[in-house]
Amino acid sequence: MDGDRFPPSLRKVITDVLKQQPEKKIMCGIVGGVSNTNVIPILIDGLERLEYRGYDSAGVAAVTPEGISCLRRLGKIEVLREALEENPMSALAGIVHTRWATHGKPSEKNAHPHVSQAAIAVVHNGIIENHVALRAVLREKAYEFSSDTDTEVIAHLVNEQWKGGGSLLSAVQNAVQELEGAYSIAVISKNDPENIVAVRMKSPLVIGIGKNGNFVASDVSALISITNQFVYLEDGDVADIYQAHFVVYDKTGKKVERPIKVSDLSPEDVSRGGFLHFMQKEIHEQPDAVSRVLDGRVKDGKVLIEEAFGNKAAKIFARTEAVQIIACGTSHYSSLVARYWMEMESLADIPCHVDVASEWRYRNPRLHSRTLYVFISQSGETADTLACLNMVKEGKPEAHTITICNVPESSMTREAELTFLTKAGAEIGVASTKAFTTQLAALMLLTLALGRTRGMTAKKEAEVIVSLLTVPEKLREALLLDGELRLLAPGFGKKEHALYLGRGSEYPIALEGSLKMKEISYIHAEGYPAGELKHGPLALVNEEMPVIAVAPNDVLVEKLQSNLKEVRARNGQLFIFASPDVKIDLDEGTTVIALPRVDELVAPIVYVVPLQLLAYHVAVARGNNVDQPRNLAKSVTVE
Ligand code: G6P
Questions:
Q1: Which residues neighbour 254 within 8 Å (Cβ) at sequence distance 6 or greater?
Q2: Is 331 in the pocket of ligand 1 (CB under 6 A)?
C-alpha cells in the first residue's frame, strides 16, 4: 500500500506495522445464501460438508428482524449447532464459516463472521496483506476492533462505504478496492434481509443455483445436496445474490455472464457410504479410481494423447526437451516416483526435475522455453503450486504448462495450458490416498506420451499399458491385506517413531507411507532411501524402532536385503512389505507382508496401498481423528 495516501501522522505507524506479518489462515470454509425458507439449516448442513478442510471454530450471521444476529463458537460445528438450538435463528439471508488459524489464536473472538457496528457482517477466506495499515486508518475513523484477525478490516471498510448511502453491492465493490491479498468473502447488511454480496479474489468461490434460492460456497461439495448447477467466479468478480436471481460484475464493475456448469459430483461422493471414515472409503475406492484414469485414454496398446491431454498436447510434447514437476505434500511424492519413470532410457528418457513448490518459487529458477512444467495437485488450489504456475506463465510465456489435477474448474485447471483430470472423485480425508494413486497412473501416461516422441518403442508402450491395465485388479488384491494390517496396528500404535525404507521408485513410496503415518497417527515417521541407512538413521535403530521396508522384486532387492540385515543386527523390528518372489530370511523380529505380484514398473501404484492401510489402522487404534488430523488442512490455499 502506498503510505503517501495517508496523513503524515499515520505514515510512521504504517511503515512499522507493515513490517509485521498479517494473520495467516488456511482453508477456511464459507457458505452463504438467500432462500425463500429459513436459510440457516441449509447453511449449517453445507458447512458440515466443508468440515474436511479442518477448522478450529465456526460461526453464523444472518439478517433477522432484529438486525444482524451472529453466533460464533470455538470448536466443532456440532458446538455451533447446540448453540443454535439454545438461540434459534431464522432468516432468509445468511453466511456461515469455519476458521482454521495458523496465526492469531483459535478463539471465539477471532472466529468469523466479523460484524461492524451491528450493521455489516463478513466471512472471509484468504489473507488481507495490508490489513495492519487498513486497521490504522480505520482506527482513526473511530472503528473499534474486537479480534486479532485481518478479516475485521473488511467488515469496517464495507460499513464505512455503506454508511455513505447506496447499496450493499456498491459498498462492497468500493471496499474491495482497498484490499490487497487473497480473499473470497460473503457479506450481509442489516438493511438487506434478502441479499448477500460475495467476492472472489485468488481464493475459490462458487455460486450454487438452487430451486429455493441462490448460494455461494468455497467449493461445490458444500452445496451438492441442494444443486448440481454452479457458476465459477473469476478473480475480481463481485456477485450480487438474491433468492430468485443473481448478477455477476467483473473487476471493472461491468456486468458479466459466467457460464453455468453442471457438476457430476453426487451427494454420495461426499458421504462416508458405510465406511467408518472418509479415508477408509477413499482407500477402498482406488481400484475404480485408477480405472477411471485409464478409461478412454488408452487403446490398442497406445496412449490416446489427444483424448488424455488435449488437442495441443502432441505438438507440445514433441518440442519438450526437459520436464520440471512442481507440487506439495503427497502430490510431490507422486512426482518423485514419476522422475524414475521419466528418466528411464526405455521410457521417456528425458531429464526430469522435481521440486517442492514452496522451495522452487523462491530460488529464482531459470525458466526454459522447451521445458514442460508439470503442476500436480489434488485440489488445484494449493497456493505455492499455483504461484509457481503463474510464475512460469509470466516469466516464460512461451513455455508450456500442464496440470495433473483432481478438481475440474479449479484455479490450476484454469491457469494451465493443458489439463489432465485424474477423476478420482471427491477426496475428503485430509490424508491423501486415491489422489496419489490416480496421479501415479496419470504420470505414467504422461511418461509414455513423452516417450513416444523420443524414440520409445511401440512394443514398450504396449507392454507398459498392459501392466497399467492390471493395476485396478492388483489394487483389489492389495486391499485384501486390510485384516492382516489391522492386526498389526495395536502393537504399532504403541510406538513413537518409525523408519520407512525403500529403494528406486519404492523410495518415494516409503516417503509417502511415512507421511501417511505422521499425518494421522502422529507417530514420528521418516522415509529414507535404504542405501542411506548407514549414513545416519541406523544410529536410531534399536529394539524399540519399527523399520518398514518396501521390497519389490527388482534388481535392487539384494542390496535392500543387506540393508535390512543391518537393521536386524541392531535388534530393530522389521516389517517387510514384499512381493512373494522376494526371498527373505525370517526370524522372530521380522514380519513379512506379502504383496500382490505385479510388474515392477507399476508396482509403486499398488505397493503404497498397504502402507495407507497400516497408517489408517494405527490412527484408529490410537483413537485419532482420522479424517481431520490435528493442525492439518486438506488444501492449503494461502502461503
Ligand atoms: C495439504 C494436504 C495434503 C496434500 C497437500 C498438497 O498438505 O493435507 O494431503 O498432499 O496439501 O495438496 P494438493 O491439493 O496440491 O495436492
A1: none
A2: yes
